[in-house]
């Protein structure tokens, strides 16, 4: 079993920054892809950014140039640096990890979510 724990959410004003962290633990052989998703109020969950084990990144158009995803493979931890935050970035942010477990199965896991609120 694998657990993901997010931290770093909060309430900020427009233009400010936040850094989210996602710590993975459990029966991890390798984290293949780490990603951040968000669910704004009343809307569906959407992709924010992903990063592969090789360091390749992908971003939603709405966050390109403002958000940066990174990972520390030695610590099984992922990060999302969010700069120039806008009110429309307000959402619950979820960490996702596609993991190869120690049993060599490949499974996707989700964190519990962390609230990010950006006031205007």
List keywords for this structure.
120 residues, mainly beta, seven-stranded mixed β-sheet, four-stranded antiparallel β-sheet, 11 strands, elongated
Question: How does this structure look, described?
Answer:
With 120 residues, the chain is mainly β. The protein is built from no helices and 11 strands. Strands 2, 4, 5, 6, 9, 10 and 11 form a 7-stranded mixed sheet that branches. Strands 1-3-8-7 form a 4-stranded antiparallel sheet, with no helix packed on it. A hairpin with a 4-residue loop joins strand 7 and strand 8.
In brief:
The chain is mainly β.
Q: DSSP strand (E) fraction?
A: over 45%
| Mean pLDDT across all amino acids | 97
Distance between the termini: 40 Å
Strand tally:
11
SS-based class: mainly beta
Order of helices and strands: EEEEEEEEEEE
Q: How many helices does DSSP assign?
A: 0
What low-confidence regions span 5 or more consecutive residues with pLDDT below 50? none
| Large-scale geometry | elongated
Helix residue percentage = under 10%
Radius of gyration: 14 Å
Largest sheet: 7 strands, mixed
Write the layout of secondary structure elements.
Layout: E1 2-7, E2 10-13, E3 18-26, E4 28-39, E5 46-52, E6 57-59, E7 67-72, E8 77-82, E9 91-101, E10 106-110, E11 114-119
Parallel strand pairs: 2-11
Antiparallel strand pairs: 1-3, 3-8, 4-5, 4-9, 5-6, 7-8, 9-10, 9-11
């Amino acid at each position: 079993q694998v657990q993901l724990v997010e931290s770093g959410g909060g309430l900020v004003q427009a233009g400010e920054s936040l850094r989210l962290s996602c710590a993975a633990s459990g029966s991890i052989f390798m984290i293949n892809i780490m990603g951040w998703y968000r669910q704004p109020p009343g809307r569906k969950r959407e992709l924010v950014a992903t990063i592969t084990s090789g360091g390749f990144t992908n971003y939603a158009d709405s966050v390109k140039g403002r958000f940066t995803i990174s990972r520390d493979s030695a610590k099984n931890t992922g990060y999302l640096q969010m700069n120039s935050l806008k009110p429309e970035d307000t959402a619950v942010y979820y960490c996702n990890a596609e993991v190869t477990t120690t049993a060599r199965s490949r499974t996707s896991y989700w964190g519990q979510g962390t609230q990010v609120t950006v006031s205007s």
